[in-house]
Amino acid sequence: MTTIISRAPAGPQHSVSETRRERKVRVGGGTIACTTAGTGEPLLLIHGLGGSRRTWDRVLDGLAATHTVIAPDLPGHGESDAPAGDYSLGALAASLRDLLVVLGHSYATVVGHSLGGGVALQFAYQFPERIERLALISSGGLGPQLTPVLRAATLPGAQTVVAGLALVPRSVTLRTLNAVSSIAPALLARPDAGPVADSLRLLTHAGQRRTFIRTARTVINWRGQSVSATGHLEQLAGLPVLLVWGTDDKTIPPHHHRGVAGLLTDPRLLEIDGAGHYPQETAADRLLPALRQFLESTAPFRYTESRWRRQLTTRAGRP
């Protein structure tokens, strides 16, 4: 297990890739909007609840220098069509598998942020033959604790409240969130005020608010996170995993990532000092070098049915 604590900026920002392309890809009965860039081994970036592929803008081009990067809007998010009715992690993972197939990729390294981390974990378990590495950033699905703000999204009337918040001008929302981070720092990290304000602006459309609430309710209840991947982590033996968190994350407790490291065969851990829940946006200059080093220094995972069977039967035989 390797733990790195990142405290200082590490290198210049990368210029915009000349290969960056915005596209809508027909997958099944709908379309998935995505940004693609670069050439090389495929790298799939999965955003969080209520977000969009734009959360990766600060790291996408740096990653595209060595990889084919695919950053989609999850179904019902951003510019992607809403799903037919299944908002579960399994359905989201399947839609991303289908996207890779349509784009001509048999496998990919998968990077997930927040809810996207839960989707990435589900993808690894559902489609182990299609994953090479796994990077989890401020990931959901690793423990029950969760900010009260997101737990409230599962309560009756939440969609009306979210609609009201989404219509508030961004400047007003940002001032309010900065005040909250000062008065009640346990609720919101100061670096996260901007990303949260941007996420709320994405929810001005009724369809996206509906997706936000329905997706939230598949993984969250009023007590916290209701879906956990920890029971399946041992099944991913041999898969290179990078765990990343900000020390000031108020949305998902940092101890979730430290706690699950012992369930993995060879985890890499990156703790970003002072970062909140969105290090890909607020600490990109420290996240990007770690992602690139992880990609360069690890061998891709290759699924074999005999190993998968051995893992399943070993687990089944435990008391």
Automatic annotation (TrEMBL):
<dbReference type="InterPro" id="IPR029058">
    <property type="entry name" value="AB_hydrolase_fold"/>
</dbReference>
<dbReference type="InterPro" id="IPR050266">
    <property type="entry name" value="AB_hydrolase_sf"/>
</dbReference>
<dbReference type="InterPro" id="IPR000073">
    <property type="entry name" value="AB_hydrolase_1"/>
</dbReference>
<feature type="region of interest" description="Disordered">
    <location>
        <begin position="1"/>
        <end position="24"/>
    </location>
</feature>
<dbReference type="Pfam" id="PF00561">
    <property type="entry name" value="Abhydrolase_1"/>
</dbReference>
<dbReference type="GO" id="GO:0016787">
    <property type="term" value="F:hydrolase activity"/>
</dbReference>
<keyword id="KW-0378">Hydrolase</keyword>
<protein>
    <submittedName>
        <fullName>Alpha/beta fold hydrolase</fullName>
    </submittedName>
</protein>
<feature type="domain" description="AB hydrolase-1">
    <location>
        <begin position="42"/>
        <end position="283"/>
    </location>
</feature>
